[in-house]
Each structure stands twice: as structure tokens, then as C-alpha cells.
Specification:
283 residues, alpha/beta, Pyruvate Kinase, Chain: A, domain 1, 5-stranded mixed sheet, 5 helices, 5 strands, 58% helix
Length: 283
């Protein structure tokens, strides 16, 4: 299981690295729009001067695994989901992974929709299907916010389960760094800057969900590698302890057998000597 998990993680990372430039370019274009036009209005973002608190229905995409044997990977994601439900009861859950589906069903927590086979096979096609469902609800104003709860792998030693608000977003997440040059030549947007932004955002959302799926999948495999490594070490310790106990019992059994044989030989020797002495006395 350790070797299989390491192979799957390398493959998933390679796929993510292959698609990352495209979504980085999309994010760069959104950033360029906000740097060019200061008063962009979009249903997907907060206005610059802020927005009243949105207390309607939330949609939460919870990404878990299909299997266990991965340490605290699934439990950490479930805790984040339960924390969100405790803070905002009117939350619809969209669950990826058999583990999460079974957990919520066992605890009688309603799930709006579950996505099968997505946790073990994160593809761009599946990410677009999920994003289309969530965006349709957001566009129809059936939900006010979209959250994604997934596990972010920082390095091979550290993973973090986090809840990120996907929509609506603040412009500050697309703010440019000091090292980036300001836009000097104005852009022309057809038919309007709002329409352009509304066409880019669905691709950005799909890319974000795909990244979260692959990131969670890599975190799952990394957690499983750590769990299997610990299991191997624990098994080796148990085997070492059992080997010592077995050798002690075996040595004790051998010693007892030698003692019994020696005692039996001495008893036979004494018996033989006693019989010889009795024969001498009879003569």
C-alpha cells in the first residue's frame, strides 16, 4: 500500500503540474481586469466598498477519500465540515468520497449530492461537472456562498484541512504584487468588462475545484504513506518483541527438556546401581 500510494501521488502531481499553467493564466487575466478597471461589477465578487453579511443558504463541497487507512486525513476534513454546520446550519453539503457520504449518512446529516468515483479519479471533466452544478445554484440565487473544504498538502510532513470561500470573492485575492508592473495601456472589452469577467470566472472555479481535488488526492496518498510507514514500524516492533518472547519460551522449553532428561538419566543410573547392590547382597 505504501508503494501504490507513492505511485498514485506522483502521477496526480504530474497531472496537476501539466494543467496548472492554464489556470494560472486565467487568474492572471482576472487580475489584469481588476488592475485595468477599478469599478468592475460582477455577481461573483464583493464590491470594493464591501457588502452586507450574506446569511442565506451556503453550499459546501466536502472532499474526502473513498477509503480509510490514511491516518487522520478524513477525520480532519469531517471536523471542518461539522464546524461549518455548527456556525451556519443552513448549509447544503456536496460530498466527494465514499467515506464522507457514509459518515454523514450514519450521523443522519442530510447531503444535497454526492459525487461517486471522483476522489480516486480527479479529472478536469469531473471538476467541471461539480462547478457547473454549484454555479447554477449560485446564479439562480439559491445559495449565497460556495465553500470548499479540502486538504492542502504543504510538504511530505504537514497537511492542513481548510475551508475556503470560493464565491463570492474579494478583489484583494487578485491584487497585484509590488514586483508586477501596472497596466499602462488601456484594454478594450467586448461586449463589456462584466461580460468578459462572467465568462472567465466559471473556468477559474472549475480550475480551483480541480486543484482542490488533486491536492486532496495527493494529501490522501501522502497520509496513507505515512500511515503505512508507521504500521510497518509498529509491526516490526511487535515482531521483534514476539521474537524475543518466542526465543525465551523456546529456550525455557529446551532447558526444561534438558533438565528432565538429565534428571531421568540420573534416576535410571541410581536405580541401576541400587539393583546391582541388591544382587551383590543376595550372593
Amino acid at each position: 500500500m505504501y508503494l501504490i500510494a507513492s505511485t498514485k501521488m506522483r502521477k496526480a502531481k504530474a497531472e496537476l503540474d501539466g494543467t496548472r499553467p492554464y489556470f494560472d493564466a486565467i487568474k492572471g487575466e482576472i487580475k489584469r481586469i481588476f488592475r485595468t478597471v477599478k469599478d468592475v461589477k460582477s455577481r461573483y465578487s464583493y464590491p470594493e466598498d464591501g457588502m452586507p453579511a450574506l446569511n442565506g443558504t451556503y453550499a459546501c463541497l466536502v472532499i474526502t477519500a473513498d477509503k480509510g487507512l490514511a491516518g487522520m486525513y478524513n477525520q480532519n476534513v469531517i471536523k471542518e465540515a461539522e464546524r461549518m454546520l455548527a456556525n451556519h446550519a443552513d448549509t447544503k453539503l456536496f460530498v466527494v468520497g465514499e467515506y464522507g457520504r457514509q459518515y454523514f449518512a450514519h450521523h443522519n446529516i442530510p447531503v444535497e449530492r454526492s459525487f461517486l468515483y471522483t476522489a480516486q479519479n480527479p479529472t478536469m471533466h469531473r471538476a467541471r461537472e461539480i462547478s457547473e452544478i454549484l454555479l447554477a445554484l449560485f446564479t439562480c440565487q439559491k445559495i449565497e456562498k460556495i465553500y470548499v473544504i479540502y486538504t492542502d498538502i504543504k510538504n511530505s510532513m504537514y497537511e492542513e484541512a481548510k475551508a475556503e470561500r470560493l464565491l463570492p470573492f474579494h478583489r484583494k485575492i487578485f491584487s497585484f504584487n509590488q514586483t508586477e508592473e501596472a497596466v499602462k495601456i488601456p484594454f478594450e472589452f467586448t461586449p463589456s468588462v462584466g461580460e468578459v469577467l462572467d465568462n472567465i470566472i466559471p473556468s477559474y472555479v472549475a480550475g480551483y475545484i480541480y486543484s482542490a481535488l488533486v491536492d486532496s488526492f495527493c494529501s490522501e496518498q501522502n497520509a496513507r504513506m505515512s500511515a503505512m510507514h508507521s504500521a510497518n514500524q509498529n509491526a516490526e516492533k511487535i515482531l521483534a518483541t514476539l521474537s524475543v518472547q518466542y526465543n525465551r519460551l523456546r529456550q525455557a522449553a529446551i532447558t526444561q527438556e534438558i533438565t528432565e532428561i538429565s534428571s531421568g538419566a540420573q534416576a535410571q543410573k541410581r536405580k541401576f546401581e541400587k539393583r546391582q547392590n541388591e544382587e551383590v547382597y543376595d550372593l
